[in-house]
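Session log. Operator J.P. requested a structure for one protein chain; no other inputs attached. Running the standard single-chain path with token output.
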Amino acid sequence: MIIQQRRRKFLKQSAGLSAAAAAGTFGFQGIAGAQAAPIKVGVLHPVTGFVAYSGQLCRFGAQLAIDEINAAGGIKSMGGAKLEAVLGDAQSKPEVGVSEVEKMNEAGVSAIVGSYASAICLATTQAAAKYDIPHLVDVGVADQIVERGLKNTFRFGPGYKVITEAAINDLHIMNTLARKPAKTVMVVHEESLFGTGTANLLASQLPGMGYQVLEVAKHANPTRDFNNIVLRMKALNPDIVIPANYYNEYVLLVRTMKQQNVRPMAIYSVLGGAASSFKFVKEFPDVANGVIDCNHWYNPKDKRAIALRRKVEKLDQFYTYEVYLNYQSVYLLADAIERAGSAKREAVIDALASSTWDKHFMPYGPTRFINGQNQGAQALVLQVLKGDIRVVLPNTYAESELVFPWKA
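Structure written below.
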């Protein structure tokens, strides 16, 4: 009798333990199920090499957006799934960018944001296309990037054809309003895809607007001495100098111009690597003042853009187009994933292709991609005035009146 009672008690305890274990097991499964798997996003930029400064700012802007999106609840249509950055360094070399795409594919990224420089973007978008990885181009302006029929490639900002045409038209407006004092131009450009493509467009289109292109001078990346180019500039005496190069070379060029007392009516950059940089304005105010640039820029009348600028500056970073173009590109990607309700690559590509995202602070309007290019994207004309960068054209976004010709 005692043995039977003990047996019944043992079976009862065992059943209770089994039920508890089962409940515990199911409970843990429930908790795990509530924690949606992270969505891996490739953040690919040249954070070392000759354009490392810009690449680091690109990464900073992308990570800033990822952190904000996650803090706000992640991707709600996927149970609050968080974005997880898979970082890559293209080392300022296209071939290294390609190898980074291979690594990101193996890591299972749902999309890639990057890769800043046109030559790198051209290579990384092609590499990503092999695996149907959606690739959001943050800055790269060469139009070849979106002219190859790649279904995975989307560029949020404008390309150099759109920017150069706007720059030439705005140059003609400012020159006409000043009674056409400028008649001659010299173009100085870096040797890669971005600089060469921009310079070719300028050289072919400026004569049709009545400007004589005295010379198109190419320089290597990196370049540490602009004395010969500036000596040639001094001999030609152009009314307007148009640089198209990256930050370090831009700064050295205009500083050498000042040292050799070369003072054109205007330094009018097209996609100038430093002219739209607060770092340039702060560190070299004597040469920055008066410089004009047609470049990527935010809507200065949008309070969100100003709020982000304050946030970035509190983090001891400069508020450059590298920062906010990547910041906005990540938000555009997040919107596509949210609408798709999926992190599958083909679903994200379809969502991007049909995007009408309008919650940005760029002067673009809602996104509308045709062959991967956002149709509303445009550049603004800026001028360094009294230690700040101000929008001067078009009038819709202007904060200050243009000063042209510049009286040094």
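Operator note: Residues 45 and 115 are 5 Å apart (CA to CA).
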